[in-house]
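Side project, low priority. Logging it here so it doesn't get lost.
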Amino acid sequence: MSTMFAQSRPFSGFSIDDAEAARHFYAETLGMEVSDVPGMPGMLLLHIPGGNQVFLYSKPDHRPASFTVLNFPVADIDAAVDTLIERGVRFERYEGMGMAADARGVHRGGEGPAIAWFTDPAGNVLSVLQDG
């Protein structure tokens, strides 16, 4: 097996339709560090704890991802959901997953952790999930 990627620092990316709306949402609503990509207007980097990054790129024909593109593990999902609701975030409800959603949109009771899905301004699906 080749070690071609042994020293690589992979990163993920997904499209957005409005860089300024995305910047505001990720920086102000979610409290993340966001920076411009030098020399690339409309492109942003989300700085993830641990030194990783997620590349957000403006795309004129953007179509929101139909799957979760970014998950945020949290120590207390209820506190995280309450804070996000206070900041104007609306949570999604997905039926037929073997999990029941509470009044705020936290899905519990499946095989995995408690999880709540929401979207960014471009319609991409994100989640907060109970860590541990």
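Brief comment: The radius of gyration is 16 Å.
Revisit when time allows.
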